Amino acid sequence: MQGLHEGTPQGGPLSPLLSNIHLDELDKELEGRGHKFCRYADDCNIYVRSERAGKRVMDSIERFLAKKMKLKVNRQKSAVTKPQERQFLGFSFTGGCMLKIKLSRKALKNVKHRIKQITRRSRGISLLQLVKELSEYLRGWLSYYRLIETPTVLRDLDSWIGRRLRCFVMKC
């Protein structure tokens, strides 16, 4: 039959679920080796103490995935680097010896873009409707990013939102 494809469409709702089921063997392998890691669907971060250890683990995990699971690691998306130089699911880490969880630059850019859309002055909605829509969005956003350990970013975002709301009120 022509046109028949294997697998599930990437980005589809079933893709993360199937990835999590299929990569459970990888989780067990990493736990057995005593590695600290975080994985969602086919995205995975493994944390080790040095760059040398990172390269060694990257090579061995790549071999494990190729031989045992018949999977290929995308080397262009993979890297051995410091945690603060990477982002994962909208999170990143601060620098220094005491790492803290922070909001990634891309996630901050995305939330500001969405807030700009909601608080656009030319939307033709009432302040009450705007505040309701904004609070619903921010409630969900804050629930997802509740792990952030850098409160200054949230304070700055709060001040910025206040300015956006004042501009909306002044336009009315």
Describe the 3D structure.
This protein is mainly alpha-helical and 172 residues long. Helices cover 52% and strands 9% of the residues. It has 6 helices and 4 strands; from the N terminus they run ααββαββααα. The chain has helices spanning 15-22, 24-33, 51-68, 105-118, 127-144, 151-171, and strands spanning 36-40, 43-47, 91-93, 101-103. It has a two-stranded antiparallel ribbon. A two-stranded antiparallel ribbon has the order 3-4. A hairpin with a 2-residue loop joins strand 1 and strand 2. The chain is elongated, with a radius of gyration of 21 Å. The relative contact order is 0.08. The mean pLDDT is 90.
Give a quick set of tags describing it.
52% helix, 6 helices, two-stranded antiparallel sheet, 172 residues, 9% strand, mainly alpha
Largest sheet: 2 strands, antiparallel
Strand percent estimate? 5-15%
Number of E-type strands: 4
Shape: elongated
Number of helices: 6
Walk me through the topology:
Elements (H helix, E strand, L loop, with lengths): L14 H8 L1 H10 L2 E5 L2 E5 L3 H18 L22 E3 L7 E3 L1 H14 L8 H18 L6 H21 L1
Antiparallel strand pairs: 1-2, 3-4
Structure summarized in a few sentences:
The protein has helices spanning 15-22, 24-33, 51-68, 105-118, 127-144, 151-171; strands at residues 36-40, 43-47, 91-93, 101-103. With 172 residues, it is mainly α.
